[in-house]
Write a structure and sequence with these properties.
This protein has 138 residues and is α+β, with helices and mostly antiparallel strands. The chain is built from 4 helices and 6 strands; from the N terminus they run H-H-E-H-H-E-E-E-E-E. It has one domain: Arc Repressor Mutant, subunit A (Orthogonal Bundle). The strands form 2 sheets. A 3-stranded antiparallel beta sheet has the order 1-3-2. A 3-stranded mixed beta sheet has the order 5-4-6, with no helix packed on it. Strand 2 and strand 3 form a beta hairpin. Helix 1 packs across helix 2. The chain starts with a helix and ends in a 6-residue tail after the last strand.
């Protein structure tokens, strides 16, 4: 059963199992691209936008998904890799936004290099989006 992996990941992060949480995580885990709230909502015949939004925020807080705001200005979500803690120094990766199909891809093997900040500056978030054409649009 494909939802079993989603259930296991939720349990590992001590997130209470609900049908919607399992379904949302399953959708994200099986997507090749990042997904907006609207994209996720459209995958379900019946869904509550607020419930999906709260689910995504819970997942983000627990380090199960990460979000990226690309040039669309809309947050898009993707499931984190197994073992990811979304630690700024270790887990952040490059994202790629295709100008052809407008999809945004996670590139987890392409890490964002460490950024040295001036003394007394504290970094909290880093986003790096490369724009161009994906393999399908070249």
């Amino acid at each position: 059963m494909k939802n079993k992996e989603a259930e296991n990941r939720l349990a590992e992060k001590n997130i209470r199992l609900t049908p919607m949480r399992i379904l949302v995580l399953d959708v994200l885990m099986n997507s090749e691209v990042t997904m907006s709230l609207s994209n996720i909502e459209s995958t379900f015949e019946k869904s509550d936008r607020v419930t999906i939004y709260r689910t995504l925020k819970t997942f983000e807080k627990k380090g199960l998904v990460h979000s990226i705001i690309d040039s669309s200005g809309t947050p898009k979500y993707a499931a984190c890799e197994v073992g990811c803690t979304c630690h700024m120094e270790r887990d952040l990766h490059v994202h790629f936004q295709c100008r052809g199909c407008d999809e945004t891809f996670c590139l987890p093997t392409h890490k964002i290099p460490k950024i040295s900040l001036p003394e007394k500056f504290i970094g909290e978030e880093v986003n790096l989006v490369v724009k161009g054409l994906c393999v399908k649009c070249v």
